Amino acid sequence: MLTLATIGYEGATVQGFLAALEEARIEMLVDVRAVAMSRRPGFAKSRLAANLDEAGIEYLHLRGLGTPADGRAAARAGRHEKMREIFREHMTTPVAQADLETLVSIVKGGKRVALMCFEADPRHCHRSLVVEALAAHVTTEVRHLFPVEDDPD
User: Fold this and answer.
1) Confidence of residue 6 (pLDDT cuts 50, 70, 90)
2) In whole angstroms, what is the distance from residue 117 CA to residue 106 CA?
3) Radius of gyration of the chain from Cα atoms?
4) The CATH number of the domain where 116 resides is what?
5) What's the whole-model pTM score?
6) d(C-alpha 65, C-alpha 39), whole Å
C-alpha cells in the first residue's frame, strides 16, 4: 500500500519541520496552500523550496488544492464545518480537479509524498479533505507528521 503524509508548519521552526520530513523519508513536499506566502521565516514558497532542496526533498506547489479566500476566513473564525463545505465545493472546479489528477499521478508513481499546509491539527485543515478526495482515486495509508520540537540547548 502507498503511504501519504500530511504536515502543518504552524508553530514550527524550519529545522523541526525538515527533521520530521527527513525522519519520514519524504521525497516530495506538495504545498497545498492557495497562497504560498508566510510570515514565518523559511516557509514562503521560494525559501521553503530552497530549504527543501538543501535537504534533498522536491517541492511542488499545487495552488488549485488550496482553500479559497472565503474558506480561509471561515477557518480563521473557527468555523471549520463552513470551511469544509466551501472547500468541497471548490474541489469540483476544473483547476482543483487538474491539480488533484497531478497529485494522483505522483502518488501512484510511488514517491513518498507529504501534503503541507499551515494548520498544525490535520482535523482543522483542508489537507485532510485533499486526502479524502485523493482516496477516490488511489488507496493510501495516511500518516500525519508533526514538526520535531527543537532542542532548547
Assistant:
1) very high
2) 18
3) 15
4) 3.40.1010
5) 0.94
6) 21
Residue 152 domain flag: no
**CB-CB contact of 52 with 44 (8 Å):** no
Does a structural domain hold residue 150? no
Residue 43 lies in a domain: yes
User: CA-based diameter of the chain, in Å?
Assistant: 49
Do 7 and 145 touch, CB atoms closer than 8 A? yes
How many domains are there within the chain? 1
Q: Is residue 122 part of a domain?
A: yes
First to last CA, the chain: 40
Identify the domain containing residue 36 by its residue range: 2-145
Listed in sequence order, the residues at least 6 apart from 144 whose beta carbon sits closer than 8 Å to its beta carbon are 5, 6, 7, 122
